[in-house]
Write a structure and sequence with these properties.
The complex is a heterodimer. Chain A is of the alpha/beta class. Chain A contains eight helices and five strands. In chain A, helix 1 packs across helix 8. The N terminus of chain A is likely disordered. Chain B is of the alpha/beta class. Chain B has one domain: 3-Layer(aba) Sandwich (Rossmann fold), CATH 3.40.50. Helix content of chain B is 56%, strand content 11%. Chain B starts with a strand and ends in an 8-residue tail after the last helix. The relative contact order of chain B is 0.17. The mean pLDDT of chain B is 92. The chains are: A alpha/beta, B alpha/beta. At the A-B interface, helix 2, helix 3 and helix 5 of A face helix 2, helix 3 and helix 5 of B.
Chain lengths: 252, 224
């Protein structure tokens, strides 16, 4: 997907059959990366830059749908869900944002920056032992992003960053999987596995990987370079009447 | 695992209640579970319905969350404990209703693939007019989603119900073949339907009875 920026959009699986096919002239950029790697800080810096460049920007983030966010928080507080139930909750959150935020913004020609995308579910579920094929089928309603930027980091470099940031949290340490005797141990193992999985997905889906160990400004520079390249190619190739930006349903 | 399926007003809940009474009176350990009853998504569902935020996909996924939660807490433990689980609606409700709302039939089957297949599924077949009559005599108004108002087929609730539930019926008929559901004539008199159902249930309980008898006599069960 990265090498063909102006290609028509595609659904990951069956898509949303009941939605009329409309032109989606906007761009969907997903930022992926594990917990505490600095995704939100980078996204905060991307938006004003893009707006200054003249692009309208819309943000969307994992578990932030009005329909589901409270339910997800309650569920996390209750510690009573299986990986299957969790996956479906995340899928519902995702679908709500897809239909009410992402698609309308793309139709209106916005750049949508997604803080995490379906790949987060793929990575976590794999680590938590859910059937990977099932997870992918559930997310068959997703639109494939035009660009996936992956913030790559090794677990050793991640640890001090998280400790100096908001600290190690129960879920991000994978305590629910009982992987180690203490928080640190568990964090190291859980995040190590997650990162392995993200890297595997990165090569499978052709993410553009950037080194998240770089200082904030340099990392931002890298991200901007990739986005600028993508956008200039996209706009060079787009002619309003020739380019068909309608999403087509196609199993990848 | 025994479940009942059919459109609203087909009388399936009544029949399941009568079956439960009968099974309990005969000493069977029974656990009852109902579609869309877990507390987990209740608030999201209420908010979604009230503010009309639900799309066919989120409607489907919220029900799937409910199902997954009940599968964990209400269905698998009693089954593993050797009890009889009675389910008022099962995955076939999603296969029929969600597809009638427009989601892809293969997608919804994939979503529900963690479910296990029931030993007996009773499908209560009823013409739309009879189900409408039953629903309208019990309460003044049809519910918004029950009438499929969200699909936008008609602005008149009764007309919308007729159109939407006809689609659902059509899909149920196809599912009957695909999944071997046992059709019950839901227009028949209540005790007559119940008689037919009890005969079917007795049949599938034969193995179950044998295992229980063996257990009572101290013989270890050989099944599974």
């Amino acid at each position: 997907m990265a090498s063909h920026p102006s290609r028509a959009k595609t659904w990951y699986g069956h898509g949303l059959p009941y939605i009329a096919k409309k032109r989606l002239p906007g761009h969907l950029i997903a930022i992926e990366g594990t917990d505490g790697v600095g995704r939100s800080a980078q996204i905060e810096l991307l938006r004003p830059w893009l707006e200054l460049e003249g692009y309208a920007v819309s943000n969307t983030g994992w578990t932030r749908s009005p329909l589901l966010s409270e339910t997800i928080n309650e569920a996390k507080a209750g510690h009573r869900l299986t990986v299957t139930t969790f996956s479906l909750l995340y899928a519902a959150d995702f679908a709500d944002r897809l239909e009410h935020e992402i698609l309308p913004a793309l139709q209106a020609g916005f750049i949508v920056i997604a803080d995490r995308y379906m790949y987060t579910a793929f990575a976590r579920n794999s680590v938590m032992g859910a059937d990977p094929q099932w997870t992918r089928e559930v997310f068959g309603m997703a639109l494939v992003p035009d660009l996936v930027l992956y913030l790559d980091i090794d677990v050793k470099s991640l640890i001090p960053r998280v400790i100096m940031g908001k600290g190690m949290d129960y879920w991000e340490s994978g305590m629910h999987l009982a992987l180690g005797i203490d928080l640190f141990d568990s964090f190291e193992r859980y995040q190590g596995r997650l990162i392995d999985e993200y890297r595997r997905l990165s090569s499978e889906f052709g993410f553009l990987s950037v080194d998240a160990r770089l200082p904030i400004e340099e990392l931002q520079g890298e991200l901007r370079k990739h986005i600028a390249e993508y956008l200039s190619a996209a706009y060079r190739n787009s002619r309003p009447d020739s380019a068909d930006n309608r999403a087509s349903t196609r199993k990848e | 695992m025994i479940c009942v399926e059919g459109i609203d007003g087909s009388g399936k809940s009544t029949q399941l209640l009568l079956l439960e009474r009968w099974l309990r009176s005969r000493g069977y350990p029974v656990h009852f579970t109902e579609w869309n009853s877990s507390r987990l998504v209740r608030r999201s569902m209420q908010r979604g319905k009230k503010k009309n935020l639900l799309t066919p996909t989120t409607f489907s996924l919220l029900h799937a969350v409910d199902f997954a939660d009940r599968l964990t807490y209400q269905i698998l433990p009693p089954l593993k404990a050797g009890m009889i689980v009675l389910a008022d609606r099962y995955v076939y409700t999603a296969f029929a209703r969600d597809v009638a709302r427009g989601v892809h039939p293969e997608w919804v089957r994939a979503v529900y693939s963690p479910a296990l297949r029931p030993d007996l599924t009773l499908y209560f077949r009823v013409p739309i007019d009879i189900s409408l009559e039953r629903l309208l005599s019990g309460r003044a108004k049809l519910k918004y989603h029950e009438a499929g108002m969200d699909v936008g087929l008609s602005t008149d609730p009764v007309e919308s119900f007729r159109m939407f539930q006809s689609r659902v019926l059509e899909i149920y008929d196809q599912l009957t073949l695909e999944f071997g559901m046992r059709p019950i004539d839901a227009t028949a008199e209540i005790p007559n339907q119940q008689r037919v159902i009890r005969t079917m249930v007795q049949e599938i309980l034969r193995d179950y009875d044998r295992n229980r008898a063996n257990l009572k006599n101290g013989v270890t069960s050989q099944s599974r």
